[in-house]
């Protein structure tokens, strides 16, 4: 007689990786995807009537995004499959999605030291102020700021919430309207445990479209 299993699988919830929902997803049938970019723009000039039109070309380049393969395997006994009462297949499928993997031949990510996002502003020491947040906000050009979002660690959100003005009032006031999410400088933010915490030499916030 096989052992009896509880029909509810108790699982410690892992941190959610939401980056795919924010990113542009590109389908590729080969290993690499080349993206054309404008390297430099031409210029127009004011001319007299019937004067020759000046020639000024745009130059184009390309960046290449490589496709990487991540693999993992779970061994499951026939007995466990036969006694399956908590939808083991669904759990394994979700578990595969959680296993990101680590090693050579993998994508770098926006917080990587080399190949990551460019630095917008550097803080003084291992602390952060709202002036730093504003400097990061305005380091991005205006067309990108319209749809940009923040990405930071929960501990950084807590540090920002604790900042006070000269009168002891909290600088960051949360939303008081139902259904209206909290924002930083009127742009939504997302928290992730994969973003580094506040420390000297760490990239702790990202802001971009």
The global form is flat
What's the pLDDT, averaged over the residues? Answer: 85
Head-to-tail CA distance between termini: 58 Å
Query: Number of helical runs?
Result: 6
Q: Give me the side-by-side strand order of the main sheet.
A: 4-5-3-6
Looking at how many chains there are and whether they match, the oligomeric state comes to: single chain
SSE class:
alpha+beta
Helix content: 10-25%
Give unreliable regions as ranges.
none
- In N-to-C order, the SSE pattern is HEEHHHHEHEEE
Radius of gyration: 25 Å
Main beta sheet:
4 strands, mixed
Strand content: 15-25%
Number of strands: 6
Structure characterization notes:
By secondary structure, the chain is of the alpha+beta class. The strands form 2 sheets. A 4-stranded mixed β-sheet has the order 4-5-3-6. Strands 1-2 form a two-stranded antiparallel ribbon. The mean pLDDT is 85.
What is the topological layout?
Layout: H1 19-22, E1 32-40, E2 59-66, H2 78-82, H3 88-98, H4 130-138, H5 142-145, E3 149-152, H6 154-161, E4 183-184, E5 187-191, E6 205-208
Parallel strand pairs: 3-5
Antiparallel strand pairs: 1-2, 3-6, 4-5
Give a short overview:
By secondary structure, the chain is an alpha+beta fold.
């Amino acid at each position: 007689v096989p052992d009896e299993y509880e029909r509810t699988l108790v699982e410690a919830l892992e941190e959610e990786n939401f980056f795919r929902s924010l990113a542009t997803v590109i389908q590729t049938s080969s290993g690499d995807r080349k993206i054309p970019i404008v390297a430099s723009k031409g210029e127009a000039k004011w001319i007299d009537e019937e004067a020759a039109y000046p020639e000024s070309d745009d130059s184009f380049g390309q960046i290449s995004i490589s496709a990487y393969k991540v693999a993992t395997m779970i061994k499951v006994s026939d007995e466990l499959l036969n006694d399956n009462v908590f939808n083991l297949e669904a759990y394994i499928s979700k578990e595969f999605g959680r296993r990101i993997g680590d090693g050579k031949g993998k994508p770098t990510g926006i917080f990587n030291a080399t190949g990551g996002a460019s630095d917008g502003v550097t803080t003084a020491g291992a602390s952060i102020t709202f002036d730093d947040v504003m400097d990061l906000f305005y380091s991005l050009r205006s067309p990108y700021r319209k749809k940009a979002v923040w990405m930071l660690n929960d501990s950084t959100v807590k540090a920002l919430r604790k900042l006070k003005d000269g009168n002891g009032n909290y600088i960051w006031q949360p939303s008081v309207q139902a259904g209206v999410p909290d924002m930083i400088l009127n742009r939504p933010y997302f928290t992730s445990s994969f973003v580094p915490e506040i420390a000297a030499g760490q990239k702790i916030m990202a802001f971009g479209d």
